[in-house]
Amino acid sequence: MDLGITGKWALVCGASKGLGLGCAKALVAEGVNVLMVARGEQALALAAAKLRATYEDITGAKVQFIAQDITSTAGREAVWAQRTDFDILVTNAGGPPTGDFRNFGRDDWIAAVDANMLTPIELIKATVDGMAARGFGRVVNITSSAVKAPIDALALSNGARSGLTGFVAGLARTGLAARGVTLNNLLPGAFDTQRLQAVFQGVAAKTGQTVEVVAAARCNTIPAKRFGTPEEFGAICAFLCSQQAGYITGQNILADGGAFSGTF
Fold it and tell me: Which family does the record assign (predicted)?
């Protein structure tokens, strides 16, 4: 299927690895020019070089990168200094620390809200009007399945990402939809990423079990009996960015292998 987005420009955050990289890869494969942003310059440069080597001659897509902390004002200004007009925005920031909410102070909550709610809002604010003026725009926020089914140890994430979800629900139903701009949230369950492995290691250290036993137990709770891959996550993101997905907006797309057991 031709997604109809060849030649568009995308800003993909957290793009050096994991789900962000999966999204960047899927978009470049569709001929989308991508500006990749992440904090770690070495990993980001390597990821960008691999995408160029794999897809540049095939799709003609440009791959640029800038190593910045997108959650900071300075980081965002550096991105806008490189490019301001984007047709596609994929927001993505690392999840806040896990733990008991009783142990978190005000600074912890402010940091979580700043990274996982306010930063996406700032990025959306800076890009959607330009999208609307051009008659096409796609915003995909990578959030978490915890928005749908909160997890006790993810109190900071549950709160901050739910705030973003409510904001997007309102904004998506304004005049932007009639001008070709859609906003959706993509909610990952358990995907095979470094973050998931870090969670397993934390649980293993706390319980005295091996990482393999912890991972197997988690995998067994998923009807698909496996963890997702960044590549298939990226494919979902690319579809949400397509011309064909123009009638999908204000939605929370859950990708979790069937782990959420609710009807809605």
Answer: Belongs to the short-chain dehydrogenases/reductases (SDR) family.
